[in-house]
């Protein structure tokens, strides 16, 4: 049996009374019905002009293509809530010109009958000064990412961030809130707060990056305080049913680690559950394991199952899924939906391929995944019904 009957939530319903078999089963979320359970995960592709981060026609074409080919739940690339953030080639969301650009994306995606959520992010210690006009990055504590970063001057060591002040935290919290309001005002169906992958919110949550001695550090409750304040501000501004989050309890990307990921994220999920938000996207272990930390699987064996009974709302599983494992996790009730990242890069028509049992294109043009124009972004072959009929 699928999740919907066994995991009650006010946002996910089983009104369809269907047996949930897998990725291609329909789902009702709030007042909308989606034909399948496949989500486009947020992916930075850097196709905008980095001098202004205004979404352009390339983004309109990309997201529309994904929607037209059957993916009806799209999360955008991470979008900077303020100018100092990295990934400036992504579409940002802190001024009206950027939002006008997004409006074209949103309208076009809506014409294809899909829902679209804007991913809001602040990079924290991952904001390299060379990419941020010389500004020293801020983070919960002054601990640098070990390793190098891609900057406009090439690969350089990450720099030591400055411990953020409470006044600055208030400003950033307000930036998230304003960005959330912008998203709704310009037609997005909701937002996803990027609480994963070692960016600012995640840096507060996890023990390795938050060594603060004030009420924002020093205990799990305190480490969760700022993330929950941001969530609450966004809920206040746009409503809980439009706020989703993404978490990565075991992620090592950006030199991240938590000593007790189950305890930390279980408490986070308990708190989030009380707020009845739109969804949680739960990442599995990533491929960035380093020698510094224990293997993720030694910390939590099955990360999706681990938090499934704590968080009772719409639960999206992510990381390294394929058609079979995606079907399995949905049919055994451990997730409501599955999000795909990498597979969408070379298969913008991923859903059509799943529906028609076609082989996937596994040749990702990695040299052109980030930045540039159409090449490596809009030149992957699309599903052609004629070919399958033959
Ligand atoms: C090129 C690329 C860019 C990404 N950019 C983002 C991003 O902007 N925000 C985010 O939350 N995750 C980002 N991710 C992570 C994906 O959303 C996803 O969590 C990850 O790739 C695991 O899913 P997969 O195994 O289906 O690819 C990115 C991944 C890739 C491959």
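Sequence proposed for the structure above (390 residues):
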């Amino acid at each position: 049996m699928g999740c919907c009957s066994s995991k009650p939530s006010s946002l996910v319903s089983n009104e369809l009374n269907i047996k949930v078999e897998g990725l291609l089963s329909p789902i009702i979320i709030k007042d909308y019905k989606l034909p399948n359970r496949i989500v486009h995960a947020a992916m930075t592709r850097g196709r905008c002009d980095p001098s202004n981060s205004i979404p352009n026609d390339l983004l309109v074409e990309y997201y529309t293509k994904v929607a037209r080919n059957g993916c009806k739940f799209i999360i955008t690339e991470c979008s900077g809530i303020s100018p100092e953030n990295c990934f400036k080639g992504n579409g940002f969301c802190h001024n009206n010109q950027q939002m006008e650009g997004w409006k074209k994306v949103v309208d076009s995606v809506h014409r294809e009958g899909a829902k679209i959520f804007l991913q809001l992010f602040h990079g924290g210690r991952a904001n390299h000064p060379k990419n941020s006009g010389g500004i020293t990055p801020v983070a919960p504590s002054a601990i640098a990412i070990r390793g190098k970063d891609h900057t406009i001057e090439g690969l350089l060591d990450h720099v030591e961030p400055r411990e953020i002040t409470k006044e600055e935290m208030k400003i950033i919290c307000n930036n998230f809130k304003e960005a959330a309001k912008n998203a709704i005002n310009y037609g997005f169906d909701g937002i996803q707060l990027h609480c994963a992958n070692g960016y600012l919110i995640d840096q507060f949550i996890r023990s390795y990056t938050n060594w603060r001695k004030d009420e924002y550090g020093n205990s799990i409750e305190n480490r969760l305080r700022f993330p929950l304040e941001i969530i609450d501000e966004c809920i206040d501004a746009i409503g809980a049913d439009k706020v989703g989050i993404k978490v990565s309890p075991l992620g090592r990307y950006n030199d991240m680690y938590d000593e007790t990921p189950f305890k930390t994220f279980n408490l986070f999920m308990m708190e989030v559950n009380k707020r009845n938000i739109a969804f949680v996207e739960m990442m599995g272990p990533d491929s960035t394991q380093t020698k510094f930390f224990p293997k993720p699987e030694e910390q939590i064996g099955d990360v999706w199952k681990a938090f499934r009974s704590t968080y009772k709302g719409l639960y999206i599983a992510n990381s390294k899924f394929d058609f079979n494992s995606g079907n399995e996790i949905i049919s055994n009730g451990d997730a409501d939906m599955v999000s795909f990242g990498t597979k969408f890069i070379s298969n913008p028509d991923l859903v059509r391929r799943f529906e028609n049992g076609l082989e996937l294109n596994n040749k990702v043009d990695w040299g052109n995944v980030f930045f540039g124009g159409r090449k490596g972004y809009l030149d992957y072959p699309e599903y052609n019904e004629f070919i399958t009929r033959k």
